[in-house]
Amino acid sequence: MQPPIWPQLVLQAVLILIHACLTAAEAAERVLSTPLLRRQSEDKRYLRVVAPSGRFRAAVRMGSILTTLLGAAFAADCFAGRLSGWAVARWALAPETARGIQLLSVAAVALVLSLLYLLLGEWVPKRLAVHWPEQTAKLAFPPAEAAAWVLTPLLWLLTTITNGLLR
Question: Which pLDDT score, from 0 to 100, does residue 98 have?
Fold first, then answer.
């Protein structure tokens, strides 16, 4: 008996939502950083975030990458195993074909997850940020700033390693 699938679905939804917030923050920052929109902005509180540090931008990119990688790892572990188990049982496949079905299941799950991340985690947030940059910034900057704060030690470590490799 396999554990219920709903916790994995909730985890994927949360990871996609985090990815979407980070993408929206990055896109809103780019749109709001244009000089005309800076002058026209109604809410001056969010203009201070429009010129974020390199740490903010790096944390946003790192957070996006991490959510994608974690989502892929959890999905491959949970959904691909279920899908291949269902296919082997459904069509009464021989045990030697189970490995091939497992590989096809991982590919199918990766394709579906990639489409979800592209649509819900990238394209929709960017479109929202282009059409409504200030409203998007108000919603997306707080989680992005939290991610920047949480990821600061990892960013420091990666920067230190990169600088060491380049010497």
Answer: 81
Closest by Cα among 137, 140, 146, 152 to 33:
137
> Quick one: the chain helix, strand, coil %, rounded to 5?
90, 0, 10
Contacts of 33 (CB under 8 A, 6+ apart): 50, 51
Estimate to the nearest angstrom the gap between the alpha carbon of 10 and the chain centroid.
14
Are the beta carbons of 30 and 49 closer than 8 angstroms?
A: no
53 phi, psi to nearest 5 deg? -75, 170
Residue 145: CB atoms within 10 A of its CB come to 16
Tokens 């409203």, located at residue: 135
User: What does the alpha-carbon distance between residue 60 and residue 16 come to, in Å, rounded to a whole number?
Assistant: 14
Going 7 to 10 to 16 to 18, the CA torsion angle's sign is negative
Q: Are 64 and 147 in contact (CB under 8 A)?
A: no
Quote the CA–CA distance of 2 and 11 in Å, as a whole number. Answer: 17
- Taking only the tens place, the pLDDT of each residue in 105-157 is 999 999 999 999 999 999 999 999 999 988 888 889 888 888 888 998 999 99
